[in-house]
Amino acid sequence: MTGSSSAVRNRSLQGKVAIITGGASGIGEATARLFAEHGTRMVVIADIQDELGHQVATSIGIDKCNYIRCDVADEEQVKAMVESTVQKHGQLDIMFSNAGILSPSEQTVLELDFPQFDRLFAVNVRGMALCVKHAARAMVEGSVKRSIVCTGSVVGSRGVSMSSDYCMSKHAIVGLVRSASVQLGVHGIRVNCVSPNGIATPLTIQALGRSAEEVEKVYEKLRRLKGDALKVKHVADAVLFLVCNEFVTGHDLAVDGGFVSPIHGSML
């Protein structure tokens, strides 16, 4: 990054107030730190991992970041999160709706377990829609140059051989973003999606039951671009771009290194 581009980004976030769901670890944590480095007045990280959330907020600095517990599948909690942010900080400029879960078991369409399906959709789809809804309601009455970014996945525009419920949920996010961008553009609100390839985050490491290095080797097979592993910092930088660029909306930005769909097996 050149000095001039860094200065432009810093001005773009100067004085802004942001909410990041799923902000206690992984992509959310990396983005919270990046936003703070680039001038946000306050980053509110929302999660259900209380200890981690408080640790991240403290490490960034309580004058620049605070933590709030929020289960995004619960509308009252999402509404309260947005309202408390506006009450405490006077505005909401950025919503990074990032919280999501993985399929606890890999399923084909023939094997769909609908209690599992319903839980995954409650977080990945309902939760995402709730965050967009309530952030947009606050933004309509708020500052100019407001931005909503959702976390999707490279499988949000492709089919895969397993994890059908997860794949379906990520397709739904792309539909949400494209519809919301059409409806909210009149209010000056931009809505975009960032769609990463597989990354060794705490969530995927736990799901696969392997070390970070082993998970990175698994995911290397899913991209054409070889070299350094895809990291959360690469996705965070893409989110920063979407937030700062004032004329990108309705876009699904793949951060995938040239995705290669697996013939067999899961795509987390």
Automatic annotation (TrEMBL):
Q: Which species is this record about?
A: Carpinus fangiana
PROSITE patterns hit by this protein: ADH_SHORT
Entry superkingdom: Eukaryota
Q: Which family does it belong to?
A: Belongs to the short-chain dehydrogenases/reductases (SDR) family.
Alphabetical list of InterPro entries matching this protein:
NAD(P)-bd_dom_sf, Sc_DH/Rdtase_CS, SDR_fam
Q: Which SUPFAM superfamilies match?
A: NAD(P)-binding Rossmann-fold domains (SSF51735)
> What protein does this entry describe?
Uncharacterized protein
